[in-house]
Amino acid sequence: MTTIARGTDTLTRDALTVLQPGFTGTTAPDWLLRRLGEGLASVGLFGRNIVSPEQLSALTAQLRAERPDVLVAIDEEGGDVTRLEARTGSSFPGNHALGAVDDLELTHAVARELGRRLAACGVHLNWAPSADVNSNPDNPVIGVRSFGADTSLVARHTAAYVTGLQSAGVAACTKHFPGHGDTAVDSHHALPRIDVPADVLHARELAPFRAALAAGTRAVMSAHILVPALDPDRPATLSRPVLTDLLRGELGYQGLIVTDGMEMRAVSGTYGIEHGSVLAVAAGADAICVGGGLADDETVRRLRDALVAAVRSGELPEERLADAARRVRELAAWTANGTTSDTAPDPEAGLRAARRALTVTGGESFTPLTEAPYVAAFTPVANIAVGDETPWGVAAELAALLPGTLTGSFTGDSAGTDVLAAAGERRVVAVVRDEHRHPWMAKALTTLLAARPDTVVVEMGVPQAPPRGQLHLATHGAARVCGRAAAEVIAGV
Q1: Which of 62, 125, 366, 387 qualifies as a FRET site for 70, CA 20 to 30 Å off?
Q2: How far is 409 from 149, CA to CA, in rounded Å?
Q3: Distance CA 446, CA 172 (A)
Q4: Predicted TM-score (pTM) of this structure
Q5: Continuous segment of H or E residues that includes residue 269
Q6: Is-contact 491 474, C-beta < 8 A?
Q7: Residues taking part in catalysis
Q8: b/e map of 409-421 (b: 16 or more CB within 10 Å)?
Q9: Cβ-count burial 32-57 (b if 16+ within 10 Å, e if not)
Q10: How far apart are CA 273 and CA 483, in angstroms?
Q11: What tens digit of pLDDT does each residue of 326-379 get?
Q12: 359-361 and 42-45: which strand pairing?
């Protein structure tokens, strides 16, 4: 039986404090403002909440008028995962591009500029960076969100990103602990499992998190993954051996632990969001991220009441909930009173990084295009973390340089022949995303190149497949600036 918590007693306030809910709309709804008055301390923002920097600034000001120290969080990785520029594509390349350049000063500068823009809009907790080592090339959810497959590279760039972001007064939330890179399952859909020995985990997965902790990351996000070497029974988000014994105890971390989205099927499909949230806090999590899918007052009420009931029944120690709420308030105080960046804006940081990240194969014999081409985007099913609302590719950027450029989106076994029919006599620019993970995409490209060997190929995912085409460009991500960098080479700008 669910206990309905009422009033603003300490237990109820603590239960509200540990929640990081989302909402719909571009202004704060009345129910959210009311909950802030009752003890809610955090709010998570998504692409649906953001139209422009001016609107975002007004929204965060509205939230702070209700609670001055409210912790406003966002999932802004740059690159493929953007909320600030969900409708246009990001002005910053993602981690994979930064790892490809391997310049720590550049990574620091990009993270600092991204943090400066967030802080200017009133956002002071970023659920980034991804510290996952993308050791499995078939990983469907990490990929270009990772700095790479080399542990030491990922570790040093994670640290540079954390220090860059936090130098702008925005708390970093390093994710997805203890490491989501060696998975072939998307935790949005099901529970991934990492079956490697503990010594491999410590040497590979945990090294970037140690670097992030040494760099002072203010928050760490848990992963909804099962790691039998650490806990054979529960996913990391719900595991005391992972969050308390390993992260708190062995690694000595004392900052905020945030869960990944509790609606994700890896947790909700087995435990439900209410019981899952109770288990997460009992395991050592301090903040419950929810709102990517369930974004209403009823969800907040259900989770609040589940936590209160768990304390009253003895399932969740009251001091554990109080400790979690304390850590949330401490981070909120840091963001309210912490460092603000006085560095001058660096609006070209993202494009500068995207240009440097570009890998060009065949450029020595390539003559830049002078006539408008046909851009064929081979489009895979969208990664939920990325979303399908964010545009990607090179068509828009090429059209700005070569007016009259046409484009189409293709998928499935007939994609290659469909492109040939649609392109006519125009030069073809084929844009792929993780060709190595999609047999239909590789087949389509083979068909296209057999008929049109002068095709330009742009790989905007992880460049695992061998380069082919008269000109092959690997952008290491699908951000808008990555498309711009590729378009400049194709058009000879």
Answers
A1: 387
A2: 30
A3: 42
A4: 0.94
A5: helix 265-271
A6: no
A7: 188, 260
A8: ebbeeebbebbbe
A9: bbebbeebbbbbbbbbbbbeeeeebe
A10: 38
A11: 999 999 999 887 555 566 899 999 999 999 999 999 988 899 999 999 999 998
A12: unpaired
DSSP 228: T
Phi-psi region of 25 (alpha: psi -120 to 50; beta: other; left: phi over 0): left
Contact 183, 192 (CB under 8 A): yes
Q: Are the C-beta atoms of residues 475 and 458 closer than 8 Å to each other?
A: yes
**Residue 348 CA to chain centroid, in angstroms?**
22
Would you report the helix, strand and coil content of the chain in percent, each value rounded to 5? Answer: 45, 10, 45
Element (H, E) at 37: helix 30-38
**Chain mean position to CA 298:** 26
List, in sequence order, the alpha helices (H) in 272-394: 273-283, 297-313, 318-337, 349-357
Asked if 95 contacts 157 with a C-beta cutoff of 8 angstroms, the reply is yes
Please give the structure tokens belonging to residue 448: 């296209």
Distance CA 92, CA 480 (A): 8
Determine the Cα–Cα distance for residues 219 and 420; give it in Å rounded to an integer. Answer: 50
User: Helix (H, G, I), strand (E, B), or coil: what is residue 135?
Assistant: coil
Among residues 145, 181, 175, 143, the alpha carbon closest in space to that of 162 is found at: 175
Q: Which residues contact 411 (CB under 8 A, 6 or more apart)?
A: 378, 379, 380, 440
User: Pick the residue with more confidence: 383 or 114?
Assistant: 114
In whole angstroms, how far apart are CA 77 and each of 10, 34, 92, 392?
A: 35, 30, 9, 15
For the chain, the first-to-last Cα distance in angstroms comes to: 67
Q: To which residue do tokens 């969100």 refer?
A: 145
Closest CA to 375 of 487, 467, 462, 461: 487
Cα–Cα nearest to 459, from 144, 117, 128: 144
- Which two tokens mark 397? 């950027």
Among 38-42, 231-235, 265-269, 392-396, the minimum mean pLDDT is found in 265-269
Structure tokens at 443: 């087949």
Region 472-478 average pLDDT: 98
For 186-218, what is each residue's pLDDT tens digit?
666 668 888 889 999 999 999 999 999 999 999
Between CA 488 and CA 35 the distance in angstroms is 49
Beta strand 471-474 with 359-361 is antiparallel
Burial of 142-174, coded b for 16+ CB within 10 Å and e otherwise, reads bbbbbbbbebebbbbbbbbbbbbbbbbbbbbbb
